[in-house]
């Protein structure tokens, strides 16, 4: 059973997320929070598999709550819910170790896919979020879209052929176990490849590596099904 905490200051959003997740018999919502402080407290109390956090909340933001959760309850993975116009916040959350990013107005199925992915140790980026992050980086002086794609490809070129294959699957939101089944290897081998990929690319987490995979054009428009 995937145990989930939902945190959003809008009751209707919490109710909507809960209703979507209730359609999956393998997911159980164990707690709800209306602000960042409460979210951190309830994660410590309930130890859910996944915390779904609004990126902006009263008290402490979802970004700060995510960082605190990752530091104190590392067994809980964090998904950030975002709206259009919050690209700076997405980048901050990415640096804070969030494992997934979803658009509030996205398809309900994407929420379930994202929760399942991060619960299984994967990084999940809504394709719309990934596109916005890359465009935002370019618009804020981090290079043109073409320049960022070229730079990402140059860095990825240092990976082995198998590591590039693993990175493409990682960018598509697959977990280590799912990647292992695709490549017909043991999961420990995939874990070793992921660790090497993060070190070679100079990034701190799977979500940041996934962004680079998107930048390099390695990920199809819609993530493949496990």
Automatic annotation (TrEMBL):
Question: Which residue ranges does the record assign to the Response regulatory domain?
Answer: 3-119
* GO MF terms held by the record: DNA binding
GO biological process terms, alphabetically, are:
phosphorelay signal transduction system; regulation of DNA-templated transcription
Spell out which residues are annotated as carrying 4-aspartylphosphate.
54
Keywords (alphabetical) are: DNA-binding, Phosphoprotein, Transcription, Transcription regulation
Pfam families per UniProt: GerE, Response_reg
Which PROSITE patterns does the record cross-reference, listed alphabetically? HTH_LUXR_1, HTH_LUXR_2, RESPONSE_REGULATORY
Domain (HTH luxR-type): give its ranges.
152-217
| InterPro entries according to UniProt | CheY-like_superfamily (IPR011006), NreC/VraR/RcsB-like_REC (IPR058245), Sig_transdc_resp-reg_C-effctor (IPR016032), Sig_transdc_resp-reg_receiver (IPR001789), Tscrpt_reg_LuxR_C (IPR000792), WalR-like (IPR039420)
What is the recorded name of this protein?
DNA-binding response regulator
